[in-house]
Write a structure and sequence with these properties.
It contains 17 helices and 15 strands. The radius of gyration is 25 Å and the shape is globular. It is about 45% helix and about 15% strand. It is of the alpha/beta class and about 575 residues long. It has 2 domains: about 325 residues, Dihydroxyacetone kinase, domain 1 (Rossmann fold, 3-Layer(aba) Sandwich); about 210 residues, Serine Threonine Protein Phosphatase 5, Tetratricopeptide repeat, CATH 1.25.40.340. The strands form 3 sheets. Strands 7, 8, 9, 10, 11, 12 and 13 form a 7-stranded mixed beta sheet that branches.
């Protein structure tokens, strides 16, 4: 388990502060993450990585000469928000273009894509290379669905070396993509991991058993089998990877390969060396030349007892980057020239926005919206453990924690907005920004989109009536589906949101009151959320474990229904004089 922490909700913030304090000669903290201590030369390309906390050395530990220029650091097992990514990218931008290089998880893709869209709108040239080295997470025909795990280290290093060598952005992107094509990984686990403050691991493995193909966020494996000897484990890992040699590689015999034997947290170096002894022999017997292998911890998962093996099939260009020197907090190799140039600035602050004053009616509606967010917070806090349990069945178990962080930030931001005179539209938009920024991950980003779209549709001019609320809910649904690419039946929050929106539209057409319409729509959402237990997930981290999730409702749909029911209770108990127009 995770033994040492203060407030679990601040664990990620505090670990970043400690990381920087221990490495002030190499990195500085900025809003959203960490960056190199010295700025890149003018007009050079920079590489930004990032992901959830809990995987050290990834991602902040790899910021420094020879690898990343900056890392956006999200909450525990949750992707950084688009705000965080933009802040880090802007802090390191040197004018030559920016490469985002990160692992293939739904929340990371969603937030990095949004950050890329925003930065491009500002005139910056931003590209992305998404790492998908985990052969266990999807078949080769669906390689775009594969996760990124420890093989990402080789891709990050190739991209960083290209940047520091003066390559232009087109070349950096080409080199990073080529490296990704030449890396394959597979992992196993002997135990689950426990998040800070949690009372139990995200999944359990019986003594003497082993999960094959687990994810680095605590997702359980795809196959369970008796735990083998170290030699037999090495055989399993090597055989699985040699069964899928990248198509760009010629003959296996004579190939030059970099091996990464990665410990996931609780399997330590002595054990790794026993495994690597066999890995080395097995690959050498196949006529493979091993080039500067790495045995240690490069991508971890808190206290998970597990290992992964990555094979990097080298060509001359990739071998140069693999063997190149680097100097970061967690990875130092060879000798690099002492960094010079302008020092990067310290921790930045998010700029405060100037609010337009809402009308009297819109301010009254904003007060109802704040009460609704407070009610949502109460129910999410109460159900946080259960939401985490549902999520851990086939995912990483952090949904309850993420929802709690997001709604808490939304309430705090909404309170400040109301005190500043915001109408309902501005209050919801500000709450959505805070939710997304604090929660991170897929659900954080989507709740941010939802509240932003609601706010934009409702505006600050008047108190909304049912037809306007129904139209705003429909706009929010369109925003969520466009951003998250989920449809009804994919086993996501959309499965609860869609019937809610349709029921509101029907009630508006029938001329019913907002209070009664919302109550009926919330019940429809609740029924639909429970019905997701029969569905197979088609998106996100639960997709590789689809069969495990049958019989368990989707946590995103359940949390959506809980929030909608909480708002229904606020509307039911609010006096007619304080409630938005549309009937009591």
């Amino acid at each position: 388990m995770t033994h040492v922490f203060n407030d679990p909700a601040r664990f990620a913030d505090e670990l970043v502060e400690g990381l920087v304090a221990a490495n002030r000669s190499r990195i500085v903290q900025v809003d959203g993450g960490v960056i190199r201590r010295h700025r890149a030369p003018s007009n050079s390309v920079v590489m930004v990585t990032g992901g959830g906390s809990g995987h050290y050395p990834a991602f902040g530990g790899l910021v420094g000469q020879g690898i990343a220029h900056g890392a956006a650091m999200g909450n525990v097992f949750a992707s950084p928000s688009a705000d965080q990514i933009c802040a880090v990218a802007q802090a390191v931008n040197a004018g030559g273009g920016i490469l985002f290089c990160y692992n293939n998880y739904a929340g990371d893709v969603l937030n990095f894509d949004e950050a890329q869209r925003r930065l491009r709108a500002q005139g910056l040239d931003v590209r992305s290379v998404v790492v998908n080295d985990d052969v266990a997470s999807a078949p080769l025909a669906e390689a775009q669905r594969r996760r990124g795990i420890a093989g990402s280290f080789a891709v990050f290093k190739a991209a960083g070396f290209a940047c520091d060598s003066g390559a232009n952005l087109d070349e950096v992107v080409r080199i990073a993509a080529a490296a990704n094509e030449r890396v394959r990984s597979v992992g196993v686990a002997f135990s689950g991991c426990t998040l800070p403050g949690a009372s139990a691991p995200l999944f359990k493995v019986e003594p003497g058993q082993m999960e094959v193909g687990m994810g680095i966020h605590g997702e359980p494996g795809l196959q369970r089998m008796p735990a083998p000897t170290a030699h037999a484990l090495a055989q399993l890992l090597v055989e699985r990877l040699l069964a899928e040699v990248p198509s760009v590689v010629g003959a296996v015999e004579g190939a030059r390969v970099a091996a990464i034997l990665n410990g996931l947290g609780a399997v330590k170096y002595e054990e790794l060396f026993v495994i690597y002894r066999s890995v080395d022999r097995l690959l050498t017997e196949r006529g493979i030349t091993l080039v500067e292998p790495e045995v240690g911890e490069l991508v971890t998962s808190f206290d998970m007892a597990g290992v992964s093996l990555s094979l990097v099939w080298l060509d001359e260009e990739l071998e140069r980057s693999w063997c190149a020197a680097a100097d970061t907090p967690a990875f130092r190799k060879g000798s690099v020239a002492h960094a010079t140039g302008e020092l990067a600035g310290g921790a930045s602050q998010r700029t405060s926005r100037v609010l337009a004053q809402g009308t009297v009616e819109a301010k009254a509606a904003a007060a109802v919206a704040l009460d609704s967010l407070r009610a949502a917070k109460s129910v999410i806090v109460a159900e946080s453990d259960e939401l985490g349990r549902l999520d851990a069945v086939a995912g990483d178990g952090d949904h309850g924690i993420g929802m709690q962080r997001g709604v808490t930030a939304a309430v705090e931001a909404a309170e400040q907005a109301l005190a500043a005179g915001a109408g309902i539209g501005s209050l919801l938009a500000i709450a959505g920004e805070a939710w997304s920024h604090r929660a991170g991950g897929t659900s954080g980003a989507l709740w941010g989109v939802l509240l932003r779209e609601l706010g934009q549709a409702l505006g600050d001019e008047r108190a909304p009536e049912l037809p306007g609320v129904a139209a705003a809910a429909s706009a929010a649904l369109r925003g969520v589906t466009a951003s998250g690419h989920a449809q009804v039946g994919d086993k996501t929050m959309v499965d609860a949101m869609d019937p809610f929106v349709r029921e509101l539209a029907r009630a508006a057409a029938d001329g019913r009151s907002l209070r009664l319409a919302w109550s009926a729509a919330a019940l429809a959402a609740t029924d639909a959320a429970h019905a997701t237990a029969a569905l197979l997930p088609k998106l996100g981290r639960a997709r590789p474990h689809a069969q495990r999730s049958v019989g368990t409702p989707d946590p995103g749909a359940v949390s959506m229904a809980l929030v909608l029911q909480a708002v229904a209770e606020v509307l039911a108990h609010r006096s007619c004089s304080a409630a938005p127009r549309g009937g009591a």
